[in-house]
């Protein structure tokens, strides 16, 4: 599903040039659950943003489902993104002014789903995430675990082929964190490809494979059994 | 402590340079515009207040109603002044001033034409405060053939002011002794003359006639005397002193006169009301109207409000950003009063800078504004007396007002809530801010509509068919100089190629020209009820063709018909007033003035009816007009049709030089026409300029707010983009809120503007209707302006990379 080759990304500030990704190559197949690990600042988030088409690489190739997209312009990327990829963030990134229901509904609005369909699909996923009873609450009124469940609901409501999660449990206690990991595992079992950045060896064990990064390069791959 | 406030405030302002700049700029712009208008209004309101006794000086006005005719005069009978002094102990003094119109003054060998001259009683210097530089104020105008000059006129003629005792030659052969030199009249005087000739010189001033009114008369009351009492006594007094004359000349008593539905009444107007509230027949100069003072004051208040609203909006918006700072400060132990003081010192500081900038600019722009407004305002010590306190007040009041909301609102927060980020939710519901935006844009829409309506009306005046053709008409204003030879001169001009026709008369359909009324009776019974009191003009046979006036019926005067000397032509308004179905052949008896009897009238036959044409301003309805043949050499009007106008002009001037050494004074009729609407034009221009300013200031505010809103919502925008929102969806989302507010403001402003502008138009007898497109244009303009302003910010926000905004968590 994903094949990147010699991917490079630099950040230039006034004085220093940081190499966030240094000729990175890797592959992820459909249906895999991959964890990315590495010390802080090694380029995990950068990689995830590029995989999620939020950012473009400075060099290298990125083939998504057989299409080279490294040179796609923003509009094409956005189009591809909204139909194929769901995001889960460490800090949830829910919109404070919208209710749980409205937050989850958003991706459907942007992909042009009719309003009757939207209600059906949002209710379906809220049910699945067991937060249906909170549908009219605002994010501020929920616990961290509940918020992350809403975020995951929002990420999957569009039935994406790929979910990118950047430290999804980073802000949660272990029991809430485990709940989230169970949810992701379920999704993966139903066929969604998942790439997750994490600092926790415990969480990484839920995945099939761990890719370890150091200074923007792959240093090791572990296959989980 | 105080120093600490200032220091912190200063740093905080510097940290947010963009906001601070918008804030200071918007406020300074508003204050500057406001200040200029205040200068204007203060100037208008200060007319005649230079007189130390202004609160005791009144002018006597008179109202005449004759049958269905009504006239308001600023003038009164010749003997009234002296009689009032004699009969009413609380009348301290009175003075008559009579316009002398044009005089000739010899300077070396040349005759200068002077148009600012008046006859005045010697009491002039007792009633009015006209300080005398040289000469004795008590005796200056006592003798016949004495005159008083203003300072600059003396300098113009003699190069010095020490000229008392010198002789000046006026009107070719009259020798006048200079008995005084006064300071130039202040610009804020409702009359303005260079020469005051002694009233004693003017034979007619000794007239004892009570049945005419042609002398401007001012009375000075004694201290604490009651003007109402005098006002109420005037008419009974008049009936008493002139009853006999009335009986003898008109043949009826005042009682019968009133019973017949007519009246003659006198009244007093305070000196300081004349400039703004008087527009009567016989004014000594063109006055202004209080309406403009109201309009401009309203604009000034609007602009100030818009600027203050901006300031408040931006300050509160920005302060929400600082909630975290406030929270941290509180956790660290800052007291509430410290925070309040800090926010207030910041906003007072911004106001202070803005006020300084505004003052500098207002004073710097004053010359330009003077030109625009047709004034000669200057900042003097008397300006500073109100300006400095006003500036200090502005700084404290506006600063405190704008700073109060963030100061008290934010400082009241519990630090834990602020730190948790609860504030942003409370901020978003900013009902106050929405209200203020609605208010601002409401004012803008109001002003846009006002501007459009004023423009339309002025355009209407310019382009309306007046009923005569004012283009290509050259008017030689001082044709009377040539005395008996005026007609010869006119006939010679007619020979010039390029001159289509020429008419000799002072009566012209441009409102700055001469006017005269007479009484006409419908039949030999000479009944008041069947009388008409129209404009009655003396013209020649070429008048109608030269001015290109159209006939509705009948014919023009003919040179070869002797009987036409007793013929008249009336306008349609007169025909209607007289109730004629067919006016041709009807007879009218023109009173010679004085006693109402047949022997004292002249009989005329109506030979033609002119189509109505606008001979006075569009403010007034077309009144009845009757013209007859008579020689009047006041001026000559030429219809020219020349491809080379300068050449023709120099030919005419050469001819003139052959007749008279005096300079020929001329103008073009279309320019005279434009001049008579100059005050409207001025108001229109000023209105447009300040409206634009108001809108710019409102936009500045909106710009800041949009920037703020976009900033507040960067995270949300980032999330939405990650979830697939397009740039246009984001721009739409950000603009929608503002557009909604603007639409609400339109709903409020349109009816109000409609109403106010209808009132303004009411002042014109001939006017445009407010068109629906005006509303559409004003509304769309406001929305467009808002959308464009907001788009700058929202597009920027929508284009930003979401990765960045989400990272800042
Ligand atoms: N916008 C930016 N400008 C400059 N340098 C950047 C920018 N974003 C990231 N970097 C740098 O790129 C490198 C990789 O950053 P990245 O955020 O991908 O790290 P990470 O592996 O996600 O770290 P963490 O585990 O702390 O989240 C870091 O050295 C970082 O300083
Ligand atoms: Mg990271």
From TrEMBL, chain A:
Alphabetical keyword list: ATP-binding, Nucleotide-binding, Transport
Cited Gene3D superfamilies: P-loop containing nucleotide triphosphate hydrolases
Keyword Transport annotated: yes
Source taxon at top rank: Bacteria
GO molecular function terms listed in the Swiss-Prot or TrEMBL record: ATP binding; ATP hydrolysis activity; transmembrane transporter activity
Assigned GO CC terms: membrane protein complex; plasma membrane
Domain spans labelled ABC transporter: 2-225
Protein's UniProt keywords contain rRNA-binding: no
InterPro entries with a match to the protein in the record: AAA+_ATPase, ABC_transporter-like_ATP-bd, ABC_transporter-like_CS, ABC_transpr_LolD-like, MacB-like_ATP-bd, P-loop_NTPase
Pfam families: ABC_tran (PF00005)
Similarity remark: Belongs to the ABC transporter superfamily. Macrolide exporter (TC 3.A.1.122) family.
Protein name: Phosphonate ABC transporter ATP-binding protein
From TrEMBL, chain B:
Alphabetical GO biological process terms: cell division
PANTHER family the UniProt entry points to: ABC-TYPE MACROLIDE FAMILY EXPORT SYSTEM PERMEASE COMPONENT 2, MEMBRANE COMPONENT OF TRANSPORTER-RELATED
Membrane topology type: Multi-pass membrane protein
Protein name as it appears in the record: Cell division protein FtsX
Domain MacB-like periplasmic core as annotated: residue spans: 20-235, 442-616
Transmembrane segment boundaries: 21-42, 292-317, 338-366, 386-413, 434-454, 686-710, 741-761, 773-792
Keywords tagged on the record: Cell cycle, Cell division, Cell membrane, Membrane, Transmembrane, Transmembrane helix
PROSITE patterns for this protein: PROKAR_LIPOPROTEIN
Domain annotation ABC3 transporter permease C-terminal: ranges: 298-410, 688-798
Source organism of this protein record: Mucilaginibacter pedocola
Gene Ontology MF terms in the entry: transmembrane transporter activity
Subcellular location(s) per record: Cell membrane
Primary localisation category: membrane
A cellular component annotation (GO) from this entry: plasma membrane
Taxonomic superkingdom: Bacteria
């Amino acid at each position: 599903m994903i094949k990147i080759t010699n991917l490079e990304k630099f950040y230039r500030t006034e004085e220093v040039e940081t190499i966030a990704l240094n000729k990175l190559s890797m592959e992820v197949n459909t249906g895999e659950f991959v964890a990315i690990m590495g010390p802080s600042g090694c380029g995990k988030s950068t990689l995830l943003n590029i995989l999620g088409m939020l950012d473009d690489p400075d060099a290298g190739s990125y083939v998504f489902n057989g299409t080279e997209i490294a040179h796609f312009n923003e509009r094409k990327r956005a189009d591809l993104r909204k139909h194929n990829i769901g995001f889960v963030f460490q800090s949830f990134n829910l919109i404070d002014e919208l209710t749980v229901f409205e937050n989850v509904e958003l991706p459907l609005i942007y992909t042009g789903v009719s309003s009757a369909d939207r209600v059906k699909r949002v209710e379906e996923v809220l049910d699945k995430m067991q937060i249906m009873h909170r549908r009219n609450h605002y994010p501020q009124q929920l616990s961290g675990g509940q918020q992350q469940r809403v975020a995951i609901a929002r990420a999957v409501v569009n039935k994406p082929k790929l979910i990118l999660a950047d430290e999804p449990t980073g802000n949660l206690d272990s029991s809430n964190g485990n709940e989230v990991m169970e949810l992701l595992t379920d999704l993966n079992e139903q066929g969604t490809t998942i790439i997750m950045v994490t600092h926790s060896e415990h969480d990484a064990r839920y995945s099939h494979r761990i890719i370890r990064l150091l200074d923007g390069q792959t240093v090791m791959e572990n296959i989980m059994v | 402590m105080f120093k600490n406030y200032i220091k912190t405030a200063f740093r905080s302002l510097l940290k947010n340079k963009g906001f601070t700049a918008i804030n200071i700029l918007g406020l300074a712009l508003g204050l500057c515009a406001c200040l200029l208008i205040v200068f204007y209004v203060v100037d208008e309101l200060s007319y005649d207040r230079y007189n130390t006794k202004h609160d005791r000086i009144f002018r006597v006005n008179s109202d005449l109603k004759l049958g269905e005719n009504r006239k308001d005069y600023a003038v009164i009978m010749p003997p009234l002044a002296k009689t009032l002094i004699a009969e009413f102990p609380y009348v301290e003094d009175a003075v008559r001033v009579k316009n002398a119109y044009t005089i000739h003054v010899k300077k070396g060998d040349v005759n200068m034409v002077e148009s600012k001259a008046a006859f005045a009683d010697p009491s002039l210097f007792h009633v009015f405060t006209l300080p005398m530089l040289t000469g004795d104020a008590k005796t200056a105008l006592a003798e016949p053939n004495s005159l008083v000059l203003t300072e600059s006129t003396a300098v113009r003629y003699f190069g010095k002011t020490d000229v008392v005792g010198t002789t000046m030659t006026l009107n070719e052969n009259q020798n006048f002794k200079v008995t005084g030199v006064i300071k130039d009249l202040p610009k804020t005087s409702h009359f303005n003359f260079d020469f005051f000739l002694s009233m004693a010189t003017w034979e007619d001033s000794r007239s004892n006639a009570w049945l005419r009114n042609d002398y401007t008369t001012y009375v000075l009351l004694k201290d604490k005397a009651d003007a109402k009492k005098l006002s109420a006594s005037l008419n009974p007094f008049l009936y008493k002193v002139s009853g006999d004359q009335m009986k003898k000349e008109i043949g009826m008593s005042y009682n019968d006169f009133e019973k017949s539905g007519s009246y003659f009444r006198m009244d007093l107007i305070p000196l300081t009301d004349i400039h703004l509230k008087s527009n009567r027949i016989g004014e000594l100069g063109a006055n202004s109207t209080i309406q403009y003072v109201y309009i401009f004051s309203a604009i000034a208040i609007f602009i100030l409000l818009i600027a203050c609203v901006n300031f408040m909006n931006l300050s509160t918006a920005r302060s929400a950003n600082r909630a975290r700072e406030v929270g941290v400060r509180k956790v660290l132990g800052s007291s509430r009063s410290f925070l309040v003081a800090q926010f207030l010192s910041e906003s007072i500081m911004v106001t202070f800078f803005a006020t300084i900038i505004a003052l500098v600019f207002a004073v710097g722009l004053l010359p330009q504004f003077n030109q625009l407004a047709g004034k000669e305002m200057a900042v003097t010590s008397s300006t500073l007396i109100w300006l400095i306190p006003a500036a200090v007040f502005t700084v404290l009041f506006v600063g405190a007002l704008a700073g109060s909301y963030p100061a008290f609102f934010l400082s009241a927060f519990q630090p834990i809530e602020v730190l948790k980020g609860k504030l942003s939710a409370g901020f978003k519901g900013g009902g106050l801010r929405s209200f203020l935006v609605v208010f601002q844009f409401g004012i803008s829409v109001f002003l846009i509509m006002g501007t459009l309506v004023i423009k339309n009306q002025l355009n209407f005046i310019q382009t309306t068919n007046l009923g005569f053709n004012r283009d290509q008409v050259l008017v030689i204003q001082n044709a009377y100089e040539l005395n008996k030879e005026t007609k010869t001169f006119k006939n010679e001009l007619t020979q010039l190629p390029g001159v289509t026709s020429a008419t000799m008369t002072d009566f012209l359909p441009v409102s700055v020209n001469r006017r005269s009324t007479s009484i006409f009776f419908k039949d030999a019974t000479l009944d008041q009820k069947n009388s008409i009191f129209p404009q009655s003009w003396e013209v020649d046979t070429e008048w109608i063709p030269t001015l290109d006036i159209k006939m509705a019926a009948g014919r023009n005067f003919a040179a070869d018909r002797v009987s036409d000397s007793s013929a008249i032509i009336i306008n349609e308004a007169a025909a209607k007033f007289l109730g004629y179905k067919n006016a041709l052949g009807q007879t009218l008896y023109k009173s010679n003035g004085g006693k109402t009897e047949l022997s004292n009238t002249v009989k005329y036959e109506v030979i033609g009816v002119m189509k109505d044409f606008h001979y006075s301003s569009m403010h007034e309805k077309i009144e009845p007009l009757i013209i007859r043949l008579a020689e009047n050499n006041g001026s000559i009007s030429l219809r020219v049709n020349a491809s080379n106008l300068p050449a023709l002009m120099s030919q005419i001037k050469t001819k003139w030089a052959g007749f008279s050494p005096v300079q020929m004074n001329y103008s073009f009729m279309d320019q005279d026409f434009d001049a008579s609407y100059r005050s409207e034009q001025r108001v229109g221009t000023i209105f447009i300029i300040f409206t634009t300013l108001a809108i710019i200031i409102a936009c500045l505010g909106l710009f800041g707010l949009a920037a703020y809103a976009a900033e507040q919502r960067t995270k949300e925008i980032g999330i939405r983009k990650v979830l697939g929102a397009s740039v246009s969806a984001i721009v739409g989302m950000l603009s929608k809120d503002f557009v909604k507010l603007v639409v609400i403001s339109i709903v409020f402003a349109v009816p109000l503007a409609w109403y106010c502008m209808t009132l303004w138009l009411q002042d014109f007898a001939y006017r445009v209707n407010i068109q629906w497109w005006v509303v559409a244009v004003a509304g769309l303009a406001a929305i467009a302006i808002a959308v464009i302003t907001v788009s700058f910010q929202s597009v920027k926000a929508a284009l930003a990379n979401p990765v960045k905004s989400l990272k800042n968590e």
